[in-house]
Specification:
- Helix 1 (10-26) crosses helix 18, helix 5 (94-107) runs parallel beside helix 6 (128-134) and helix 10 (201-215) crosses helix 16 (329-341).
- Strand 1, helix 1 (10-26) and strand 2 form a beta-alpha-beta unit.
- With 383 residues, this protein is α/β, with parallel strands linked by helices.
- The chain contains 18 helices and 13 strands.
- The protein is globular, with a radius of gyration of 21 Å.
- The chain has 2 domains: 2-160 and 364-382, Glycogen Phosphorylase B (Rossmann fold), CATH 3.40.50.2000; 166-360, Glycogen Phosphorylase B (Rossmann fold).
């Protein structure tokens, strides 16, 4: 069968690539065409557009690139119609993907599957009408979403979490030792504070400088290692790195880094969950312009208590979230000090990680999703 996939960021590239592998195992004739990234390209198929050409975030950047965004959207619509896939699989990235879903549903008979659903339980709950109208099947990777969508009379499929798959696969194959890791990356023999500053340029610009400043007092005993994001040039990072705070950048090694890290400073997103799965104590850092206004909106408009996936899955504060006006150098530094020097605090966080991991369930999300998709498509073909 022919599968058309659309992702808009690095985490989507990872999860879509694993889904594609699982689909290929079950469908020897699988043919892929996609808006995606390097990991998807490595699996096989035709890369139509790279996600780095789509990943604009924040009001101003989106406004400045509206023409490009609409041009990409129009191209995507035409490409789907011309290629006539058996299914369109949308992966997260709701601002773009829900528009594509609306078009496909209105103008074609191609089924629309959504893998990694839009987080409408956090905000924009009104989008449930669009999803019910335009999405044929929704595949969830967060267990609490089942009850949320059930409350809207829209049954979905919980397939497990692909982060569990990815981390499990890495841990089964990686035998790297600490001496090997520091030798290959030309590091010193000091414990690592990992910095995961996001996968988009705007996130890096907003968060990395304060992360570095907050970690500055700890560089005598620890070394800072920054996980370089796919598609971001080393030169982009260098403009935010000063000589005062030594930091090493490693690319394509996020899991290797987390497997060796003592603690981590992490922007909100999939990386918070991955950090927890590696059982690395962390603090979530996410700067947003007009922080006080955003904090007010967060308290009064957002439908959820937390922004990090770790806390959302656990349904309690497991990791500290420093967001908007609470994302300050002083707050990050204080939390980092506690993570490094308060053994009881660390141990409590690790115990809560273990509880959260049980809630997520075992590895196998990509395989479960692929099996269910092919089953549903086969039933559709028989009708």
């Amino acid at each position: 069968m022919k599968y058309y996939l659309i992702v808009g960021e690095a985490s989507g590239d990872l999860h879509a690539s694993n889904l594609m592998r699982a689909l290929k195992e079950r469908d020897s004739q699988a043919d892929f065409r996609f808006f995606g990234g390097d990991l998807m390209k490595a699996v096989g198929g035709t890369l139509v557009k790279h996600y780095r050409d789509l990943a604009y975030m924040g009001f101003i950047p989106v406004l400045l690139h509206l023409r490009t965004i609409f041009r990409n959207m129009d191209f995507c619509k035409k490409d789907i119609v011309d290629w006539q896939p058996d299914v369109v699989i949308l992966v997260d990235y709701p601002g773009f993907n829900l528009k594509i879903a609306e078009f496909v549903k209105k103008h074609t008979d191609i089924p629309v599957y959504y893998y990694i659903s839009p987080k409408i339980w956090a905000w924009k709950e009104y989008r449930i009408k669009n999803i019910k109208r335009d999405v044929d099947e929704l595949f969830s990777i967060l267990p609490f979403e089942v009850d949320f969508f059930k409350g809207h009379q829209y049954p979905i499929h919980y397939v497990g979490n692909p982060c569990v798959d990815a981390v499990d696969a890495f841990q089964k194959t990686s035998q790297e030792t600490w001496p090997e890791f520091i030798k290959e990356n030309e590091l010193v023999d000091k414990p690592v504070i990992a910095l995961l500053a996001g996968s988009r340029k705007q996130e890096i610009k907003d968060n990395l400088p304060d992360m570095l400043e907050a970690a500055k007092p700890f560089v005598d005993k620890y070394q800072l290692v920054l996980a370089g994001a796919p598609g971001i040039e080393p030169s982009y990072y260098q403009q935010y790195i000063g000589a005062e705070v030594p930091v090493k950048i490693v690319f394509g090694q996020t899991y290797r880094l987390l497997s060796q890290a003592k603690v981590a400073l992490v922007t909100s997103g999939t990386a918070t969950l991955e950090t927890a799965l590696f059982r690395v104590p962390q603090v979530v850092c996410y700067y947003i312009a007009m922080g006080k206004v955003v904090s007010f909106l967060r308290r009064h408009i957002l439908k959820v208590k937390y922004i990090s996936l770790v806390n959302l899955v656990a349904n309690k504060e497991v990791v500290r979230e420093l967001v908007a006006d609470t994302m300050t150098v002083a707050n990050v530094r204080s939390e980092l000090d506690a993570l490094l020097n308060d053994a009881n605090y660390r141990d409590t966080m690790l115990d809560e990680y273990d509880r959260m991991i049980k809630i997520l369930g075992p590895a196998g999300a990509s395989h479960q999703a692929a099996s269910k998709m092919i089953e549903l498509l086969s039933v559709r073909r028989e009708k």
